[in-house]
């Protein structure tokens, strides 16, 4: 039959060849990932506790006051039925930065009580699992203070945690608007990350002008939102970047899913979850203190490599990889770089996709060579 219909024959050969190539590429791609290291790392971090995080207990800083962290109470994205909540990593990492730098942390939400939480296993690290195993932190997240009951005078700063639920119950909450307005006008520090800046969009100062007017602000971008949720414009009351810009903010957009923090006087905002570490430490700086030394995580080092790639290209990124691995012995999550190759593929950017794969392969080679020495 195939002799009678050669087009069918060659079509089948082409399909089989394509399948073989895809399978081979997939196996090679997986081979670039530190699978064994990832498994060992996961075993160790899942059982991590605050007791085995030296950052929290070495060179203890005397109490400097209190910071209020605010999380969403929304458990669904409007009428879409899609579940949501606050992002655990955005709370846990800031929480421990604040604690390590001498500040007690209380947690509030629009409704109080136990708010919904989003736990992304792929992004969880040592601090995040420690937070889940921290009885005090878990009590606070299970018994959040209702915003109407917050005593604003008790705190030196307020931090709005992200999570898509914030888009629904932060913007029109009068207690949130009040604390933001009063803190900004009195010089107290306001921080917000990812979707957290939704708390700022409807705040009007005593002079009648929007708080964010002419302020440099970062938040979850349209590109980041629409890549993951293509119908976001019909699900959310607004796209955060559009809303911030409409209120007169100077929206400061960084590379997708990489660290970006804007610092405008006592207003500190971050673009996404990967901005949380720097944002929390920038808040400490704005409060008048030098942030306590913290060992940079493997994921943060991967972010730095991707930032160098975005701004200076592959060769500069490879130079940084070589320096990190061979000279500085810094940990690096090359699986994070690999995840950005998938993002590039989703965007149809084939050149960047192969560049990312090249960086992962180069990092693996550098690590292998270092182990042989």
Please describe what this structure looks like:
There is one protein chain. The chain is an alpha/beta fold and 373 residues long. It has helices spanning 6-31, 35-46, 54-57, 88-100, 126-132, 135-142, 166-169, 174-186, 222-228, 232-235, 240-246, 276-286, 298-312, 314-327, 334-346, 350-372; strands spanning 65-70, 86-87, 103-109, 117-118, 145-146, 157-160, 189-193, 216-217, 250-251, 261-264, 267-270. It is built from 16 helices and eleven strands. Strand 10 and strand 11 (267-270) form a beta hairpin. The longest helix is centred in the first third of the chain and has 26 residues, at 6-31. The N and C termini lie far apart (60 Å).
SSE order and pairing:
Elements: H1 6-31, H2 35-46, H3 54-57, E1 65-70, E2 86-87, H4 88-100, E3 103-109, E4 117-118, H5 126-132, H6 135-142, E5 145-146, E6 157-160, H7 166-169, H8 174-186, E7 189-193, E8 216-217, H9 222-228, H10 232-235, H11 240-246, E9 250-251, E10 261-264, E11 267-270, H12 276-286, H13 298-312, H14 314-327, H15 334-346, H16 350-372
Parallel strand pairs: 1-3, 1-6, 2-4, 3-5, 6-7, 7-11, 8-9
Antiparallel strand pairs: 10-11
Helix pairs in contact: 4-12, 13-14, 14-16, 15-16
In the CATH hierarchy, what is the superfamily of the largest domain?
Class I glutamine amidotransferase (GATase) domain
CATH topology of the largest domain: Rossmann fold
Question: What proportion strand?
Answer: 5-15%
Helix proportion range:
40-55%
Taken from the alpha-carbon principal axes, the silhouette is globular
* Number of structural domains: 2
Question: Given this structure, which CATH class of the largest domain is correct?
Answer: Alpha Beta
CATH architecture of the largest domain: 3-Layer(aba) Sandwich
Which sheet architecture does the biggest sheet show?
7 strands, mixed
Stretches where pLDDT falls below 50 for ≥5 residues? none
Mean pLDDT: 90
Number of helices: 16
What value does the Rg take, in angstroms? 23 Å
Counting helices, strands and paired strands, the structural category is alpha/beta
**N/C terminus separation:** 60 Å
Please give the order of strands in the largest beta sheet. Answer: 5-3-1-6-7-11-10
User: What is the chain-wise order of helices and strands?
Assistant: HHHEEHEEHHEEHHEEHHHEEEHHHHH
